[in-house]
Amino acid sequence: MECFVAHCIPAVTTSAPSVSAFLKEANSNMAWIQCRCKAVKVTFSVSKPSHSLECCCVDCYQKYTWSCEAGGVDIPPSVLFEQKKKALSLAYFPSRMVVEGKDKLKFNKLRENGQSTNCVASCCNTLLFIDYPSYRDAVVMLSPDFCPVYDCRFEPPLYRCWIKDWPAEDVAKLEPRIPGFFLKKGPDGQTVTDGVGDYDGPRGEVRRRVAALVENTKSGMSEGETFSDLLAAAGGEIAVLGLPELERSFKGGE
Fold first, then answer.
1. Three-state SS for 219?
2. Strand 88-94 and strand 105-109: pairing?
3. Cβ(128)–Cβ(40) below 8 Å
4. Distance between CA atoms of 93 and 72, rounded to whole angstroms?
């Protein structure tokens, strides 16, 4: 299961939380990231993410593990998947970026049927940030555990997503104690949020936040390049890593 909580986001409604105040507050100092060898630097259009989550999705671990192994560096000890001491931190930024070293960007995805696309620094295989179709070219996601964010103000994670990819006893040990969610098959065979409707509970709030960020970014921000701009500048090619799906990937069949 891919770890993107904005799955199938419809058009934002009047009930979606506004992030215009966030955009005004956050643009005084710009957050930035860089690849491990410092040849690529990405400056965002704000100083803090719209929101942060923790993620237990095995696909996230797989793509970041690939990045570390391909770059010849160790996985951060705090997020070793086998030890399950900490879920991955995720941060969501507007897809308006200024990139130094743009000629070194390349793009890939885990599998042929994968929906998320990774932006990687070819010089050292650092996974910089990630796109997903329902982000509508207005949002990117990254993990500060693997790609530190500088000059950035973080708030505590709202929720923990895709907790069924971990054994329940491991999830129960995680700190902080925050609500978690996962997906399962509904009576009609469709994948739905466990226990609540698509716009109720933790997942519903996250979906609304991302949808609002999409709308505000598209209507209120013009500086910098989007994910699709960077992909086009790199020739539009998306390599397929061809990695097998991990056994712990929860498909909602339980």
1. helix
2. unpaired
3. yes
4. 27
Cis peptide before 176 (omega within 30 of 0): yes
Measured CA distances, 47 to 16, 216, 221 (Å): 22, 16, 14
DSSP, res 163: G
Cα 214 versus chain centre, distance: 14
**83, 39 Cβ separation under 8 angstroms:** no
- Cβ–Cβ under 8 Å, residues 57 and 1: yes
Residues 6+ apart with CB under 8 A from 59: 1, 2, 3, 110, 114, 116, 245, 246, 249
Spans of the chain, pLDDT less than 70: 1-28, 184-204, 217-222, 251-254
**Exposure pattern of 90-109 as b/e (b: 16+ CB <10 Å)?**
bbbbbbbbebebeebbbbbb
Interatomic CA distance for residues 168 and 6, integer angstroms: 24
- Model confidence pLDDT, tens digit, residues 240-249: 999 998 888 8
93: three-class secondary structure by DSSP: strand
Q: pLDDT tens-digit profile of 21-66?
A: 544 554 458 999 999 999 999 999 999 998 899 999 999 999 999 9
What is the reported pTM? 0.81
Phi first, then psi: give them for residue 211, nearest 5 degrees: -60, -40
The bridge status of strand 180-181 relative to strand 117-121 is: unpaired
